[in-house]
Structures are given as structure tokens and as C-alpha cells.
Amino acid sequence: MQQILQRASSTARTSRTLIIQQVQRLLSTQLEFTKDRYNIDRGKFGTLDDTHYGYFEDLLGKDRVIRDPEECEAYNVDWVKNVKGMSKCILKPKTTHEVSAILKFCNTHNLAVCPQGGNTGLVGGSVPVFDEIVLSTTLMNQIISVDDISGAVVCQSGCILETLDSHLAKYDLMVPLDLGAKASCNIGGNVSTNAGGLRLLRYGNLHGSVLGLEAVKADGDVVDCLSTLRKDNTGYHLKHMFIGSEGTLGVVTKVALQCPTRPKATNVAFLGTNSFQNVLKTFRKSKHSLSEVLSSFELIDAQSLNVVTKHFGKQCPISQHPFYILIETHGSNATHDEEKLHSFLAETMSDGVVLDGTVSSDPSKIADIWQLRETITAALQHDGYVFKYDFSIPIKTFYSIVEIMRERLGESAVTVCGYGHIGDSNLHLNITLKEYSEEVHGKIEPFVYQYTSQMRGSVSAEHGIGFRKSKYLQYSKSASAIGLMKSLKQMMDPKGILNPYKVLP
Ligand code: FAD
Ligand code: MLT
Ligand code: ZN
Q: Where a domain ends, among 103, 136, 169?
């Protein structure tokens, strides 16, 4: 790692961004193949030959069949640089018909396929393990319809979250989902991971906002569940089979979302406090005092903020404390919301629960404050190798695992930090090392998963299971539930061509 940084920094005049890109590229070149690091056997799938390439090129045209190894690299390595596949073929369909034809052909020829959206997934689900064909939805980016009265929006699955949200602003609507990867993640990826994000507390789980969807099964069959109705109790709710199943049951091609009205007034408060108990007291009070306008309640511990200031040179807007809280309100009356937030802050400060804080309704200041929270993920990458965890843990014992791991790992970790969506009891425990170490890995896993299970938590609150967590699924799902999951997979994808080595143990 030291060597990599020195090599990257030697280009004296290169801008900071370029250096970061170089480091990322060098790290991905040095990354071991997943199959080697995790000792995985290849499934009994076919191997691509010229006849297969010929079919894909006839269907899509040469420019939408990527074979150049350098170009393929970006589709083989995940965002967090934990896993690396060896696909030699990236397909970029534009229509449901093309997706259907690809899957039908792959199923007939027993070729494995890894569906991919924006490739921002954090559990190694979005990249191949061996030579699976990558089916990228990035060109399926059409917004099909917007009903500005009901709020029903229909789009293709490759729409970028932020692009869709900006489009909806014209109709005073918003996507009921926001996350740090919004500039690259796709709606289809969001639906396939049932992404949570920064405002689930207010706008609910994505399962509840998806009105309908269209998906293509492994055999090429198009399943049309693209209802735009809010209420529709006609038989089994099949759309839920595809929401959160991480590309193992079908490829999502279109999505219908229920989109809420965009708020007229947004405020953000950034607060500091000295104990986790006081974070909890502040959360409880915010629900009572801010009630219907509360749209986000996020935790950042001092160690998390430290990586952002260290690697990105950002300034903390208040004095230093062990814990920081970011509170956001979404409402329709700026004066009313500001009054509420100011009196909430005055009360929590006079009680000594909150020690320092700043409030803003200015869009650029709000964006700066959100950056402190949203860039933690990217900043951690600059420590070296990141072990990421995404637990649902009962709120009262929420932070203990961070302290336990700090004690357990001592000097062997660079950073052990905790941040996340406290409003949803979702903790992101992150542990960084200078470089990957199997020995430290063994000290972390399965311990953290066993601990979470003992606490009656979930090993994945929002990121999913993907490749990295499939053998830990048992800590959150009963044997009978896993058995049923396997039966469903067998029924919908009997040859197992869709995203093999993922989700199911
Ligand atoms: P990909 O990464 O491409 O794929 C994710 C999974 O979905 C893979 O298993 C893939 O095979 C499957 N898939 C993708 N598209 C389809 C499709 N059309 N049909 C079937 N399967 C498909 N996640 C959260 O939940 N909350 C957060 O707050 C959050 N913040 C993040 C912040 C950063 C900086 C980063 C890098 C990631 C964050 N994530 C978060 C994780 C990630 O962004 C989400 O999981 C996101 O939903 C993935 O979307 P994607 O388009 O990038 O999907
Ligand atoms: C977040 O909440 O920032 C995301 O889920 C990404 C992460 O866990 O780092
Ligand atoms: Zn998160």
C-alpha cells in the first residue's frame, strides 16, 4: 500500500482526484481474484466461444458487446475493492426484449450471468466470481411516465437514482430513496438490493414504495407485474420476489415507484454529544418534538468523522465530540420547521444532552453538512482495506459492537468506526487495515455475525448478502427459511445461471 501511494503521489502535478483514481486502479490491479482468495470451485457452466459472441453481436451490435480486457476490468471489480471476477464479456442491452433474448440464449447454452447496475453494491454481489457474463443495465435508462397527481413513476431499471430524482423535481416529486451512491447506482440495483439509505425513517422501506415491476426470468420469460396502482390485492404479490433478491431470481427491467411530493422546506442540524446514551436521548426527543417533519437521524462517531477530515480535508462545523448527529427535516412551511428545530435544539442543549450544534436551511451549507456523512464510505477506502458491516441491532445495544471490536483488534486495525441510520437501528461497523490480512479477518468473522445473531439482530440491514455474506445467512435466517429460498431458486432458475455463488449458502 505504501508503495502504491508513493507511486501514485510521484506525479507531482497530478490533481488530487487523479491521484485517488490512480490509487483505486492500482489497488484493483493488485486485488486477488475472488475465486483464489475464497477458494471457490467453478460451477458446471459452459464457456463462451465464438458462436456465443456471434449471437450477442448480432443481437446488440458490436459496440454493446464489450470484450476488451481493460474495459472489462471496471465491471469485474466491486466499488469497495473487496472482490474481483474474470468476466471476458459485458453485454449492454437497451430493451426488455434484448434482456429476454440474452437470458433465453444463456439458459439454453448453460452460460452463467451476473446482472449489474451501477456496481456500487457493497457485498460483492454485482461482479462475477469466475467468467460469468456481465449483463449491465446502464443503457436501459429511459424514464417512461410520470403521473404528477398520483406520484406514480415508471422507468427502466438502468436509470441513475440522482438523474431520476432531478427529473422528478420538475413535477415537485422526489424518489423516496437517497443514498451516498446516488450519482451512480441504478433504480434496478436499488430495487434488487432493497436499498435503505438516508431517509428510510421518513419514507419507509423500498418494498413499500415499489408499485410494480417488470422482470425477466432465467429462461427469458418476461414477468409483467408493472402495476402503477397503490392498492392491488389480486393474488400473490410477485414483485416482492424480485425486490431484494440481488439478481438471483430474475433481471429487473422496469420499475414503477410511488413518489412523494418534494418538500418545500429542508433544514439540517449537526450536533455533538459526549455519549451514546445521549445520542439515544436526542433521538427519542427528536421523534417527539420534530415528529412529522423529521426526515433523517444519522449517527457519525468521532472516528468516522476523523477519516473524512483526514482524507478529504473537510472541516467539522462544531467543536469536537465523541459522537455527532445529523438531523434533517422535510416539511412544507419553512418558518414552522425552523421554529421547531430551534426550540428542539435549545431544549436538548439546556438539558446538557447536546453539547454543541449548528442548524442551517441554506442549500449549500446543507450540502456541506451532508457531505460529512455521505463521504465516510469513500474516505475509509483511503485507509487501505475495508471490512464493512451493515447490521440491524436493537437500538439500546447498538454501539457496543464497535467498542468490542476496538478492544479486540487493538493496534492491528487502522480505524474501527461506527456510523449509520440510527433512526432505523442500522449500524455500519467499519474496520480498516493497511492491507488485507487473513489473520485479522479471522479475528473479525464469524465473531461479529455471531454477536449480531445473539443480539437478535440481522447480519444485513440494507446492503444485502451478495457474495461476501452468503455463508453467514444462517445467522439471520432459519434452516426452514433457507430451505424455502433454495426451492424458490430451483423453481425460477433450475440451471442456476443467474448470479451464481451469491446470496444462497
Ligand atoms: P449493483 O451494485 O450493480 O448491484 C447490486 C446487486 O443487485 C447485485 O447483486 C446485482 O447482481 C443486482 N442487480 C443490479 N441490477 C439489477 C437488475 N436490474 N436486476 C436484477 N439484479 C440486479 N446501500 C444502502 O442500502 N443504503 C445506503 O445508504 C447506501 N449507501 C451507499 C453509499 C456509497 C458511497 C456506496 C458506494 C454504496 C452505498 N450503498 C448503500 C450500497 C449500494 O449503493 C446499493 O446497494 C445500491 O442499491 C446498489 O445499486 P447498483 O445499481 O449500484 O447495483
Ligand atoms: C451508508 O450508510 O453510508 C452506506 O450504507 C454505505 C456504507 O455503509 O458505508
Ligand atoms: Zn447505509
A: 136
Helix (H, G, I), strand (E, B) or coil at 406: helix
pLDDT of residue 16: 40
What is the CATH classification number for the domain harbouring 358?
A: 3.30.70.2190
pLDDT in tens, 122-154: 999 999 999 999 999 999 999 999 999 999 999
CATH number assigned to the domain comprising residue 107: 3.30.43.10
CB-neighbour burial class of residue 224 (10 A; exposed 0-12, middle 13-18, buried 19+): middle
Is 278 a member of any domain? yes
- Domain of residue 456: give its range: 384-492
Give, for ligand 2, the residue of 81, 120, 122 to mutate: max count of ligand atoms closer than 8 Å to Cβ.
Answer: 122
Same domain, 371 and 309: yes
Q: Specify the residue with its C-alpha closest to ligand 1, atom 45.
A: 121
Ligand 2 contacts CB of residue 136 (under 6 A): no
pLDDT tens, 157-171?
A: 999 999 999 999 999
Looking at per-residue pLDDT, the higher value among 5 and 329 belongs to 329
Model confidence pTM above 0.85: yes
504 lies in some domain: no
pLDDT in tens, 430-450: 999 999 999 999 999 999 999
Residue 499 included in any domain: no
What pLDDT score was predicted for residue 30?
A: 76
Q: How many domains does the chain have?
A: 4
Phi, psi of 500, deg, nearest 5 = -65, 160
244 lines ligand 1 (CB under 6 A): no
Q: Is the pLDDT of residue 352 over 90?
A: yes
Long-range CB pairs of 446-450 (<8 Å, 24+ gap) are 446/472, 446/475, 447/408, 448/389, 448/391, 448/401, 448/405, 449/475, 450/475
Q: Is 377 close to ligand 2, i.e. is its CB under 6 Å away?
A: yes
